[in-house]
Design a protein that fits this description.
Elements lengths: L1 H29 L2 E6 L9 H15 L3 E6 L12 H10 L2 E6 L5 H10 L4 E5 L3 H4 L6 E6 L1 H15 L4 E6 L4 H21 L8 E6 L13 H10 L4 E4 L5 H11 L5 E3 L16 E5 L2 H12 L7 E4 L14 E5 L5 H16 L9 E2 L5 E3 L7 H5 L8 E2 L6
Parallel strand pairs: 1-2, 1-3, 3-4, 4-5, 5-11, 6-7, 6-8, 7-15, 8-9
Antiparallel strand pairs: 10-12, 13-14
Helix pairs in contact: 2-10, 3-4, 6-7, 6-11, 8-9
Amino acid sequence: MTKKIFCGFVISCLVFAFILATAGLVSAEEKPNVFGLLLVGPYNDHGWSQAHYEGGKYVEKMMPGSKMIYIDKVNPADRQGVTIPQLVDDMVEKGATLIIANSDDMKDGTREAAAMHPDVHFIHISGDDVLTGKAPKNLSNLMGRMEYGKMMAGFAAALTTQNGKIGYLGPLINEETRRLAACAYLGAKYAWENVLKKDPKQLKFQVTWIGFWFNIPGVTADPTQVAQNFFNTGYDVVISGIDTTEAVVVAKQKKQEGKAVWAIPYDYIGACEGADDVCLGVPYFNWGPGYVDFVKAAFSGKWQSKWVWLGPDWKDINNPDTSTIGFTAGPALSATAQKHLASFINDLGSKKINLFKGPLNYQDGSPFVKAGQTASDKKVWYMGQLLQGMEGASSAK
């Protein structure tokens, strides 16, 4: 009898423990670690915003119990009158304890929201508030060293062009976009002079800006028209610096018309999709690993406000778990060019080649880097003009 009572008691305890454990699991499932993502463009734009969206999905994959919420099309055209703090308030109400803002033009609003929500962590992509001392302690900056990816893009373009005329489809004009356009030029110039052994005066590198990261009808120049103008005036390779895929779309149209043209899109690893006959490759961001580091720190109580500028993993620039910057060669890049590009990447990684070594001058002839010197990170970050040898505006004035 005692035995039966004891067994019944044990079974009851086990059942009760199971109920408690199950309740605990349900409770844990109901309260995941939520992080928010503010995207300047559509989450599926095949460019900048999609690369960030997939970085968020990577966090969910690598960190069980984490959950991403997002708001896309956070730009003046799609969300007129809506502020970053208002969108942050909405995310915080939905449980977000870390919020990532993915565009330079969100800088002021993100800083304001961080001050309003001191218990929420913020990452502003591409900004410099930590560098300038403007950031509150709950705000960090993250960016990828796409400068290297753009060097690779320019290198591939120079090895492919048949006439030395390369167009660069630029977004708005600021320090970031100037330095990225300049790096594409430096990569092209290096290939032109050192691989092809051609006269640098025969290389034409034109930058045309549209006024924003993607087309806003009535506000920006139409990137489709800009790309068409490049191809119609003899440029046979267009490198894109904007968030969307107009460069390869137009190149494909021109190819179907019988023109020998090529393009290099930007931002997203899948940007060449559907354009195999014209796409030379794509320099892309892989935000997942950088995001994971920050999200782990935030959720574990080890957060530090810092400015982080992550480069490629030179052992394998296309490793999805380690490399923030990658370059995938496109189907239209010749086998010979791919071989030269692989050597160029190896030399960049080993520092055998340093394209930031002087002498390098700005467009107006003033020195960017003097002979025998190498540009510091800060000098590259705050590039004031395009470089001598490039054509196009250095400022919006």
